[in-house]
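CO-FOLDING WORKSHEET

Operator: S.A.
Ligand of interest: 2-acetamido-2-deoxy-beta-D-glucopyranose
Run index: 228
Mode: holo prediction, single chain
Checklist:
[x] sequence pasted
[x] SMILES validated
[ ] output reviewed
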Amino acid sequence: MAIATLVLKVLPAFLCLVDGQTIVCNLKDWTQSSGSAVDDQLVKGSVVALQDQVQQLVGQVKGLQADLLKLQQSSTTSDTGVNVKQCSKRDLNDARTNGILMSCNFVKKQNETVLRVVWNGMLRLIHVGQKSGSCRRWYFTLNGRECSEPQTIDTQIFTNSNGKNRHRPAYVEGYCRGIAAGAVLVEWNIGECITKSYGTGASYSGWEATVRIIVEEVHVNDASATIN
Ligand SMILES: *[C@@H]1O[C@H](CO)[C@@H](O)[C@H](O)[C@H]1NC(C)=O
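OUTPUT RECEIVED:
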């Protein structure tokens, strides 16, 4: 009897306040005496056992809260699928020496992610004209501007006066930071080389075989440390 009544008195002292991420349990204020030393010993034993159980439950609840937080974070910072797009074309056969060769519309879902862009296909540059060589540069633009975080994503072909009509496979790839969520127009361009003193030459992009732009939204834990 004494145990039952005392446990009832003790129970309110075990009330735990669960407030957001915090659990506060008052486990101290349990000392109540029935006036009998034997009963007090029994009660003390019960209270200690209850304290252990409460501590275990508190541990379990904290573990569940941590799991829930992880789930909430993963559902807001990443998707289960990969946000990727490929725009491919056969027989691009573009002989222009300046301009936009290919476009690919992409929808970036988050601000904090980086974009990986890839172009692959065939490129050619034959030297023509009086200069010592010809040079063309192929490069990506994102919403009309070249990547600056951290670098441009580009390549060049230089051909000297002995240059033959050599077609080469090209694979240009890079990561770009700082592109906001929303529509991103990814374009593959051709234009002047960084050194301007060479001729334009006769360039050719995408002869017969397939060319493609690949765009992928990538989650990077610490973009500034890993994308340079
Ligand atoms: C991206 O950032 C802009 C500017 O801070 C904000 O208005 C927009 O809601 C953000 N978009 C997403 C998807 O987080």
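REVIEW:
Residues 110-111, 180-181 surround 2-acetamido-2-deoxy-beta-D-glucopyranose (CB under 6 Å).
The two ends are 73 Å apart (CA to CA).
[x] output reviewed
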